[in-house]
């Protein structure tokens, strides 16, 4: 008789006996497609009630579809084996394979930091190195493809001569070709690093430092967006708001009861506004912690904080609440470090620390400054011998050199984030915190660390059975506790959590590691009706154990994945000794003159010399107070003259002038002519004193500041051409006080001349919000209130604004036309008048400092055809 078992199994629907819930992600079309695919392939769907924000019956589910870990029930799924949480693309992948794909490779858990990665290892790498890399990537959520497919995101090779690199070029595949060093460095830090310095054919990490310029500034990290301070002072403007005819509301509060703590010390106006937003969004205010769903407070103390935390309610600070208001999307308050209440007395041990920063700028610097203060440590802008640590994004600059000479710990920001997240000072000797990948600015991976829930519970709101739960919870996170002291850390959060689960199974033994990583590593636990929850749970443990065991084994290898554990130890030791000797030799020759504070460091902040040197140079080091913070634009004297520029800035500082790159802090603007550079235009918003570059020439030549009125910036030709007066602009800027575009939301495409980021900075310098327009109508525009402005003098500068006009800054290109149509539809849906304009409109408004519009700035299909 013919065996039909296999045939029946192949004909079985892919999602038979599986029960799903789909967490909304703002993309209704994608959600409907997912549900349709599930139902067509035999699955069942449990509806998610967005008003309640919680999953009805977690035990009945097998899978949760969510693009992020940011939903209230995620923590509950981490503490049990089912349901699986998978990203939306798990559905089509499973259908394509005709069986459920490995859920761990699609898990949005941030600990699985390579879940978006599929690697293919080049043909020229040794088998041992290939197996090591595959094992490590799979251990943290990534996937391996034995052949080069379109789904491969990263091709690992030593050079472009590798046959698979040539094949990728011939097929025009979009995968990134990177050195294996990238994987090694990612695992040293437990983060997915940018691939730029490792990218073939000309990777920077293989070049001599002398042939390369300084490391580029890091791109703004999205992980710290609106999470740079635990105590914001202004209520944000939501990126989406309903029509001005209706009250502003935040649907994220729908059905929620919110309690505000007294320790927030809110003034009555702000409290009233917050309460109105919550009420209009369908939420309720309460003063009873037992009734509340969410508790908002400043500090991790008090009866209400403990009660709310123990009851698993959402506990966040004002920054978290404002994030919900801004983006109208629920997010866990533990996802971002400064969205969770801060410890009132800091983190134990930090009270004796004095920390400085290097090579971080903008929001990254603000975030780290506030994080340092939240730990209870002292933050200093000036770097001096009394500092205990220097946190830097890379090993470059005067501060790093000084720290090495003075034997001060030079560490990356992961030490600070991990210490804050785990509520204890981590060891600065951990290699993870002292490693700086070549040519990489670590500011790009800022803010990815999340609050350790178990650590916070243990320190701030322990349950009644603390004596027992303390050991269990610490062990579960992969650490060993002895009377509450000392810890042994596992390499990554994933390894820690999984190791804890494995150890908790009394009769479970880690299986032996397979000889080759491709042997059934992507097999998925069975899903037929006869396979119950227990079977799936044990399969999941076994599935994780192999990968984690391999991960832990490979992390112990001295050579890392680059050498397969076969590195020549003697050679390595010799190289390290040579490097150390060179460093000591360099340090011994460095004079105190080089470390003096005669001029600003490479970060516009001084490095303070040792006390003995300062005493010897006391008179020379005295500086006058800063009289002018100056923004300089188009100064030919410094063009391609880096050394001269540095020397001149030192001389100017001795005269009371500090050159700054931040227009918002300036009180003087210097240029040879009126120009439309980003620095010049944004600086006008602060109404600075404007002078000609002859002012600087005189100061540098005569070693004294000349009268400002002797060096005016006169450019009547420019003013006539662009139709404004600089003198009148400065008067208006003084009246506007940087609020000309307050309450404005201006859209801008990425194709504009000058770039989106430039337009964004100009808008924000004048108090507005600039959003990237990509043709998605899910963004809801804001009607502006045209009540009397905050200063009466400013009213005349706003006469042309009716509050109902919506602006899009675009470029006169055919490729932009489809987005114009969608923008008009967006404006029509919200009863607003659309205006699609050239960049000229914004440049005029920012430079003239009043709202004005001309038809010649308009963009439409007709004038595009005529052009």
Automatic annotation (TrEMBL):
It comes from the Eukaryota. Residues 10-108, 109-200, 248-338, 350-433 form the BRCT domain. Residues 565-593 have a biased composition (Basic and acidic residues). Residues 501-510 have a biased composition (Polar residues). GO terms for cellular component: Cul8-RING ubiquitin ligase complex; nucleus. Residues 227-238 have a biased composition (Low complexity). GO terms for biological process: DNA double-strand break attachment to nuclear envelope; double-strand break repair. Residues 211-248, 476-540, 559-625 are annotated as: Disordered. InterPro entries: BRCT_dom (IPR001357), BRCT_dom_sf (IPR036420), CellCycle_DNARepair_Reg (IPR053036). This is BRCT domain-containing protein.
């Amino acid at each position: 008789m013919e065996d039909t078992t296999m045939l029946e199994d192949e004909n079985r629907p892919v999602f038979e006996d599986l029960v799903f819930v789909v967490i909304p992600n703002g993309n209704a079309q994608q959600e409907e497609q997912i549900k349709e695919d599930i139902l067509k392939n035999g699955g069942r769907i449990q509806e998610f009630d967005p008003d309640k924000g919680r999953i009805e019956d977690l035990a009945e589910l097998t899978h949760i579809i969510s693009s992020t870990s940011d939903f209230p029930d995620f923590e509950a799924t981490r503490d049990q084996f089912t349901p699986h949480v998978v990203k939306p693309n798990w559905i089509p992948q499973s259908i394509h394979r005709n069986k459920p794909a490995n859920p761990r490779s699609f898990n949005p858990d941030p600990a699985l930091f390579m879940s978006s990665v599929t690697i293919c290892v080049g043909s020229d790498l040794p088998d041992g190195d290939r197996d090591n890399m595959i094992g490590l990537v799979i251990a943290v959520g990534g996937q391996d493809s034995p052949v080069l497919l379109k789904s491969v995101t990263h091709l690992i090779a030593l050079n472009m001569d590798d046959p698979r690199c040539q094949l990728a070029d011939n097929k025009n595949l979009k995968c990134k070709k990177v050195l294996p060093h990238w994987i090694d460095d990612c695992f040293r830090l437990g983060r997915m690093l940018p691939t730029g310095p490792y990218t073939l054919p000309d990777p920077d990490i293989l070049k001599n430092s002398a042939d390369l310029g300084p490391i580029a500034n890091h791109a703004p990290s999205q992980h710290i967006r609106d999470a740079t301070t635990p105590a914001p002072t202004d209520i944000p403007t939501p990126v989406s708001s309903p029509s001005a005819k209706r009250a502003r509301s935040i649907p994220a509060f729908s059905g929620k009861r919110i309690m505000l703590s007294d320790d927030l010390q809110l003034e009555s106006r702000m409290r009233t506004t917050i309460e109105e937003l919550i009420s209009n969004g369908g939420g309720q205010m309460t003063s009873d912690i037992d009734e509340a769903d969410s508790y908002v407070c400043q500090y991790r103390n008090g009866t209400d904080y403990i009660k709310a935390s123990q009851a698993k309610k959402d506990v966040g600070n004002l920054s978290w609440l404002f994030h919900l208001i801004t983006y109208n999307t629920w997010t866990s308050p533990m996802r971002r470090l400064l969205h969770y209440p801060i410890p009132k007395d800091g983190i134990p041990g930090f009270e004796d620390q004095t920390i400085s920063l290097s090579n971080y700028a903008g929001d990254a610097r603000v975030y780290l400054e506030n994080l340092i203060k939240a730990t209870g440590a002292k933050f200093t802008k000036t770097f001096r011998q009394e500092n205990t640590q220097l946190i830097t994004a890379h090993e470059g600059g005067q501060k790093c050199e000084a720290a090495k000479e003075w034997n001060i710990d030079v560490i990356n920001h992961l030490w600070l984030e991990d210490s804050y997240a785990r509520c204890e000072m981590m060891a600065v000797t951990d290699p993870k915190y002292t490693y700086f990948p070549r040519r990489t600015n670590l500011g790009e991976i800022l803010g990815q660390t999340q609050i350790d829930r178990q650590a916070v519970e243990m320190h701030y709101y322990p349950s009644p059975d603390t004596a027992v739960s303390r050991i269990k919870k610490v062990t579960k996170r992969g650490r060993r506790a002895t009377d509450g002291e000392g810890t042994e850390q596992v390499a990554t959060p994933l390894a820690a959590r999984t190791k804890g689960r494995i150890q908790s199974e009394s009769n479970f033994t880690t299986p032996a590691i397979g000889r080759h990583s491709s042997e059934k590593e992507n097999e998925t636990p069975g899903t037929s009706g006869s396979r119950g929850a227990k079977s799936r749970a044990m399969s999941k443990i076994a599935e994780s154990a192999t990968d984690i065991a391999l991960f832990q084994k490979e992390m112990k290898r001295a050579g890392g994945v680059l050498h397969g554990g076969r590195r020549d130890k003697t050679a390595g030791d010799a190289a390290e000794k040579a490097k150390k000797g060179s460093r000591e030799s360099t340090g011994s020759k460095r004079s105190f003159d080089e470390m003096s504070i005669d001029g600003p460091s490479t970060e516009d902040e001084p490095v303070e010399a040792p006390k003995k040197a300062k005493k010897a140079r006391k008179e020379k080091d005295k500086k006058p107070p800063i009289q002018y913070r100056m923004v300089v634009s188009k100064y030919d004297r410094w063009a391609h003259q880096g050394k001269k520029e540095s020397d001149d800035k030192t001389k100017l500082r001795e005269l009371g002038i500090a050159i700054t790159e931040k227009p918002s802090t300036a009180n003087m603007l210097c240029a040879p002519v009126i120009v439309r550079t980003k620095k010049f235009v944004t600086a006008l918003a602060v109404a600075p004193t404007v002078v000609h570059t002859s002012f600087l020439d005189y100061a540098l030549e005569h070693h004294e500041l000349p009268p400002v009125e002797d060096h005016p910036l006169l450019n009547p030709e420019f003013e006539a051409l662009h139709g404004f007066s600089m003198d009148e602009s400065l008067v208006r800027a003084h009246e506007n006080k940087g609020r000309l575009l307050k309450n404005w939301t201006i859209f801008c495409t990425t194709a504009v001349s000058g770039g989106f980021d430039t337009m964004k900075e100009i808008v924000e310098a004048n108090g507005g919000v600039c959003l990237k327009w990509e043709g998605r109508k899910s963004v809801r525009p804001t009607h502006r209130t045209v009540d009397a402005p905050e200063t009466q003098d400013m009213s005349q500068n706003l006469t042309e604004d009716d509050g109902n006009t919506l602006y899009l800054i675009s470029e006169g290109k055919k490729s932009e036309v489809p987005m114009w149509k969608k923008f008009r539809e967006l404006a029509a849906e919200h009863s607003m008048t659309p205006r699609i304009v050239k960049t000229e409109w914004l440049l005029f408004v920012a430079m003239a400092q009043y709202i004005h519009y001309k038809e010649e700035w308009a963009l439409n299909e007709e004038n595009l055809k005529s052009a």
